[in-house]
Specification:
heterodimer, A: about 260 residues, alpha+beta, five-stranded mixed β-sheet, 5 strands, B: about 210 residues, mainly alpha, 7 helices, about 80% helix, about 0% strand, globular
């Protein structure tokens, strides 16, 4: 082969080998980054699953604690108070003490009634048994009875086929929102809206109180954090808007 | 001293200086790379001395070839991801050393011809090291960018250089025998450039000092 043809052949061969090598390295880097990305995604999914499981167990523990307290109230304190009421009924007193005794009986009766209601509120089965709408209506009725503020419940559409666990979590979120309104907002009116459209369920709790800055206080309280965690657990969205007057907390979930 | 040599010495010197300045915090592989840079400087100066006084340094390179290989083997062995493949590396290295001994004892190179057999076997094994290292890098993936990993720079530069080196030594005696211009005009410069890339990448690896 003449030298220039040989040179040409050599250069082409060397170039091909070189390009193959560079191609191999480029492919290696590409596959490396692809695998790295897949690993990162897997890690993220694992972290999210872990977080979800953690939240689930926290909520289960909370519910278990509430159930225990409820049973304790019903079986122990309730019984003791009932016994105290019975004993009060058997006491014979003079006319001067009748008034005091009647007052004491009324107080014990009231305590028994309140404890029963409290036991009912925090007992999981009791909430699940009556259904979400009824359970929320019961909560609003309790607030009304205190005379602190007026309440209104609006139900639009029929929220059906909600998983009982989701129902319980939604109830706890509403309970927390109502508690916050009563404790911090100084509101004289609370409105709850339950709206079900196709596969979506919206629940909003609005008050006409003094409001707060969600950017400043949104992450500080355990109540708000609980609401966020619970919403996250059921794959929903929690939206808080607050101004003067009033705060609205909206939970939206896909009920499929 | 030609410009090629100046570039070559500059790269070796840079690698040695980088290695020496961070020797205390260097990982084991980084220390072996520094040893390689220092050894190469001494070796090239000695080879130059042989060329001037004995008019040939082929014999010198025949002896030092195995030292280059052994140091490179230690570099690969000291990279943490390669620890899982220690036995494979040892087996390959022992094979190359035995082959070298056979060549040295039994085979007398013809005058003016290079001892290409050892170079080819040695280069082939080093390409295997590089591919094994790439495999291990891929298997032990983490969140860090691949360009921040010393092992990556060592693997790709070793792969590139020793592939070029196989082509160089594979055709060396043929083109030298034919007195072809390809050797002087194409192969030798190509070999030199690949050599610069190899040691510049090794210097980057020392500088990064991130062999995990």
């Amino acid at each position: 082969m003449p030298d220039d043809k040989e040179l040409q052949f050599f250069i082409y061969t060397a170039l091909t080998v070189f390009l193959l090598l560079v191609g191999f390295i480029v492919l290696f880097i590409r596959y490396y980054y692809r695998k790295q990305l897949a690993n990162a995604r897997e890690k993220q999914t694992m972290a999210a699953t872990f977080q979800e499981e953690l939240l689930q167990s926290q909520i289960e523990i909370q519910e278990q604690t509430l159930r225990n307290i409820s049973e304790e109230i019903h079986d122990n304190i309730g019984q003791t108070l009932s016994l105290a009421k019975l004993q009060l009924n058997t006491i014979n007193v003079d006319e001067r003490s009748v008034e005091k005794l009647t007052g004491s009986k009324a107080l014990v009766s009231r305590a028994i009634q309140d404890l029963r209601q409290l036991s009912k509120n925090i007992h999981t089965e009791s909430v699940l048994g009556s259904g979400l709408v009824k359970a929320i209506a019961g909560q609003l009725e309790l607030i009304e009875r205190t005379g602190i503020c007026k309440t209104e419940l609006t139900v639009s559409g029929t929220p059906s086929d909600i998983n009982p666990q989701v129902e319980l979590i939604l109830f706890r979120i509403v309970q927390e929102a109502l508690n916050n309104s009563l404790k911090h907002s100084a509101a004289f009116s609370i409105n709850v809206l339950i709206k079900s459209i196709e596969n979506q369920l919206y629940i909003s709790v609005s008050d006409n109180g003094k409001g707060f800055d969600p950017r400043k206080n949104g992450n500080s309280g355990s109540g708000l954090r609980n609401m966020r965690n619970r919403t996250k657990l059921i794959g929903g969205d929690l939206n808080i808007t607050s101004g003067t007057p009033g705060t609205t907390i909206t939970v939206t979930i896909n009920n499929e | 001293m030609g410009s090629d040599e100046i570039i070559y010495y500059a790269i070796l010197l840079a690698g040695a200086v980088i290695g020496l300045t961070q020797i205390r915090r260097s990982e084991e592989a980084g220390r072996w790379l520094t040893v390689l840079f220092l050894y190469l400087i001494v070796k090239e100066l000695a080879a130059k001395f042989c060329a001037v006084y004995y008019h040939s340094n082929l014999g010198f390179y025949r002896i030092t070839g195995i030292i280059d290989f052994v140091i490179t083997t230690f570099i690969f062995l000291s990279i943490p991801v390669m620890h899982a493949l220690k036995k494979v590396i040892y087996a390959l290295a022992v094979g190359v050393i035995l082959f070298y001994l056979v060549i040295i004892i039994k085979w007398e190179p013809q005058k003016g011809k290079a001892d290409i057999y050892f170079e080819l076997v040695n280069n082939f094994v080093l390409v295997c090291y590089a591919l094994l290292l790439m495999k291990r890098i891929y298997e032990s993936i983490d969140e860090e960018s691949i360009f921040r990993k010393s092992a990556f720079w060592i693997a790709i530069s070793t792969l590139l250089f020793y592939c070029v080196s196989i082509v160089f030594w594979g055709s060396f005696n043929y083109y030298v025998g034919k007195n072809s211009a390809i050797m002087g005009d194409v192969l030798t410069p190509l070999y030199h450039y690949a050599n610069y890339v190899l040691y510049a990448s090794y210097a980057v690896a020392v500088r990064l000092n991130n062999f995990n």
